[in-house]
Write a structure and sequence with these properties.
heterodimer, A: alpha+beta, seven-stranded antiparallel beta sheet, about 45% helix, about 15% strand, globular, B: about 400 residues, mainly alpha
């Protein structure tokens, strides 16, 4: 079966997927509660879409296709409110964060669904230790070649998204010293990393994909765990490297940041992407994962070294006019503040220090996920 | 004179040997049948006590009551720790289910025993005891299966709810009955009320003071388990000495500690090896108090009681399943999971007798109660395990 044709979609339309943690409120470990939660959510209309994930202690939610930041933010907040209400009814905690700080992968249960069981059989423990939680952002592309152009042009900005979403400092009960340790779990898969440098869809579909299919290694696009991958059936590119932030407000701001960057890149404001851009890709990616906003990255064209925080602030300022035309200035304000306040990973470490336990850290993550509800209620009163 | 001699006719030997055998049989039995270990402990205790040689009969009555109460206390603390009062506020239907289930069980058991011809006092006491679900059987099975989900959560909360209400109702009934005919009819009920309130207050005080102390020490995650275990032991010893209710104190201690936000480390479920060891003793002890002849004599009413209690609890949880947010199937399985009762009954009666209430000899000698307690001590945990398994809430193996 060859790769399906690339569907056209509205340029710069946005969709967000979030993988969320389901928590037992007694011991703060992950709780295999997704079947119960999905049953309850199925009883009334849900302001988006909610689906099971590979293990029963996580769920995935996604927004409809949105055209702007306000649409994404409003729907994510509605989804968050519906989830929190249902979780309250069932005595489940729900939170963001790229990893659960102390879950043991041996305790995880694979959700009963054919594809998940196949993945589990193929990858063994990798499938269960893949109980990590990410945010995926889709950006609509009016053509397949635009999709590949954006995919490679964005490679330079991948560390921005890693640092701004980083929320996975602890794994299996210990401090990893990483801001985003989640991506280390993703690296373990053989088909992870960057997409091959092809800018023409015809070459991608008929040459690369067909060859890979013939090798028997892959069957569909889903078998690639790339940081950014095209999604031909939706007519989008999908950025997959973000940890799920602790709040939906941060998620919406990240989605808007990607949308604005794509608008900026489509205007050809930057030199065209090259294969050599990837020389520094893994190094920059590591810096973002390990040190967050304090990481030091190398510019792929100029080889100039600067801190990620500086690079993000410079980019925010460059793309501000595009943000204005897309009605997304509040998202940039949110991100400015985020660079000052440091990452969610930093916040989680602080919570560990204050509460003295990893359980206290999870409790704080649950409270932070809910916090937006109170802020919203206050704002509307 | 022989250099080596062994006297096996001592209570120390008999109990040590039985507990060791119970553990071994529990491990092998669990491995081969996948049934709960505690069912095997109970079976061994019952057989050892009822064997031809009356192997376990050397020990004085009540000698094991304190260690058994400590074992139950550790379980109740952990049980109380799982109870989230905020949930009852967010989902009031959980509380409604609990209340209706308790009242309906009381009425059904009372009606059945009256129809059977038992005295009013016995009927009322049985009705009060029948309300409860024993946390011991439930917690052990849930931890053994490492289950999580709505059936697990609801069994926890409904069981804690019905245990507290059963303890209070039972003590109130006994107090009023004792005071009948005496000159000061308020004396016994007031004493009973003071006992119940003091028991709960003691648990709450421990639940407040200990977390404060642990915070002063710092590093909650590492030091909490041993501190809580020692506190439960001390608390039960105080309750025992002051003739308070160890059930209420330990449960309230756990509940308060949870709401003071002290987290019990993930690895310390069941209080580790200490909890495991005392559980063997607890289940062997409880089953050893039951006599075979009584089980046979009380079989018909005992099984009828068991069926009525089972039916009412299951019906209630099914009826309230949809409004409280779960499927009818999970509602049904919650009711099935609420079957265990024995440790609660046996220890409540032993404690009441120990407190010197002579009336209760009649009740604890009731054949039907013994028959129900034995049946459910062995089968109750199996019911809970089957319920969790059918609800797909137990841990996948392999």
């Amino acid at each position: 079966m060859s790769l399906q044709p690339f569907q056209q979609s509205n340029a710069l339309s946005v969709g967000v997927e979030l993988e969320l943690q389901l928590i037992n409120l007694s011991d703060f470990d992950l709780s295999a509660s997704s079947p119960d939660l999905l049953h309850l959510l199925g009883k009334r209309p849900f302001p988006g879409n909610v689906t099971p994930e590979i293990t029963e202690s996580m769920i995935e939610i996604c927004t409809d296709v949105q055209s702007n930041y306000t649409g994404v933010l409003t729907q994510l907040q509605e989804i968050r409110n519906a989830l929190v209400q249902a979780a309250d009814t069932l005595n489940i905690g729900i939170c963001g964060g790229g990893t659960h700080p102390f879950q043991r992968w041996t305790d995880r249960k694979i959700f009963s669904k054919e594809r998940f069981e196949q993945v589990s059989a193929l990858y063994g423990y990798l499938a269960k230790q893949f109980t990590v939680f990410g945010q995926h952002i889709h950006i609509g592309c009016s053509s397949s070649n635009d999709a590949l152009f954006l995919l490679h042009s964005l490679s330079r900005y991948v560390p921005h998204f890693i640092a701004l979403s980083a929320s996975s400092p602890y794994v299996q009960g210990g401090d990893t010293l990483f801001h985003s340790a989640r991506l280390n779990s993703v690296f373990a898969f053989p088909l992870s990393g960057r997409a091959p440098f092809l800018l023409n869809w015809h070459d991608f579909a008929n040459d690369y994909f067909v060859k890979m299919e013939k090798t028997g290694v892959i069957k569909t696009m889903k078998d690639f765990y790339w940081d950014i991958r095209p999604k031909p059936e939706y007519g989008t590119i999908e950025l997959r490297i973000c940890d799920t932030p602790l709040t939906v407000e941060r998620s919406a701001a990240l989605a808007a940041y990607l949308q604005i960057l794509c608008a900026y890149l489509l205007e050809k404001n930057e030199p065209a992407p090259l294969e050599d851009d990837y020389l520094v890709y893994n190094y920059n990616r590591f810096q973002a994962c390990r040190f967050g906003l304090d990481g030091s990255i190398v510019h792929p064209k100029t080889y100039e070294s600067r801190s990620l925080r500086e690079d993000i602030l410079a980019t925010l300022s460059t793309i501000a006019p595009f943000a204005e035309s897309l009605g997304a200035l509040p998202a940039l304000t949110h991100l400015y503040k985020a660079t000052e306040a440091d990452t969610d990973a930093y916040y989680l470490r602080q919570q560990y220090d204050e509460s003295g336990s990893v359980e206290g850290m999870v409790n704080a993550a649950i409270a932070r996920f809910r916090k937006g509800i109170l802020v919203q209620a206050y704002a509307s009163s | 004179m022989t250099i080596f001699s062994i006297n096996i006719n001592t209570p120390e030997f008999a109990w040590s040997f039985t507990i060791a055998m119970a553990w071994i049989i529990g491990e092998f039995g669990h491995r081969f049948t996948k049934l709960p270990r505690i069912s095997f402990y109970a079976l061994v205790g019952f057989l050892a006590a009822n064997s031809h040689y009356e192997f376990l009969s050397y020990l004085e009555e009540d000698a094991l009551l304190l260690p058994a109460n400590i074992a139950f206390g550790l379980i109740l603390f952990e049980f109380g720790y799982h109870i989230n009062l905020r949930w009852l506020k967010c989902n009031p239907w959980i509380g409604v289910t609990g209340l209706v289930e308790v009242i309906a069980t009381f009425i059904a058991v009372y009606a059945l025993t009256q129809w059977y011809g038992t005295s009013t006092f016995i009927s009322l006491s049985l009705a009060a005891l029948g309300m409860a679900t024993s946390p011991a059987g439930i917690l052990r099975v849930i931890n053994e299966q490492r289950s999580s989900g709505q059936v697990t959560e609801r069994i926890f909360h409904l069981s804690a709810f019905n245990c507290v209400l059963a303890t209070i109702t039972f003590n109130v009934i006994v107090a009023f009955w004792v005071s009948q005919g005496s000159e000061d009819i308020f004396h016994a009920p007031v004493d009973s009320a003071i006992m119940l309130v003091t028991s709960m207050a003691l648990g709450v005080v421990f639940g407040i003071v200990l977390p404060i102390m642990l915070r002063q020490l710092g590093n909650l995650a590492q030091d909490a388990t041993i501190a809580f275990a020692l506190s439960v032991i001390l608390l039960v010893a105080i309750a025992h000495a002051a003739k308070l209710s160890p059930i209420l104190t330990a449960l309230l201690f756990g509940l308060t500690a949870r709401h003071r936000r002290v987290t019990l480390g993930h690895a310390k479920r069941n209080f580790g090896a200490l909890g495991d060891l005392l559980t063997v003793l607890l289940f062997v002890f409880v089953a050893s108090t039951m006599e075979w002849q009584r089980v046979v004599a009380g079989a018909s009413l005992g099984l009828a009681l068991l069926a009525v209690r089972f039916g009412v609890k299951t019906l209630t949880t099914v009826v309230f399943a949809p409004v409280s947010g779960i499927t009818l199937r999970k509602g049904l399985l919650t009711g099935v999971g609420l079957a265990p009762i024995s440790v609660f009954i046996v220890l409540t009666l032993a404690q009441a007798r120990y407190s010197g209430i002579a009336l209760l000899y009649e009740l604890s000698a009731l054949d039907a109660l013994v028959a129900m307690a034995l049946t459910l001590e062995i089968l109750g945990p199996v019911f809970t395990q089957v319920a969790l398994s059918l609800a797909h809430e137990n841990q996948e193996r392999g």
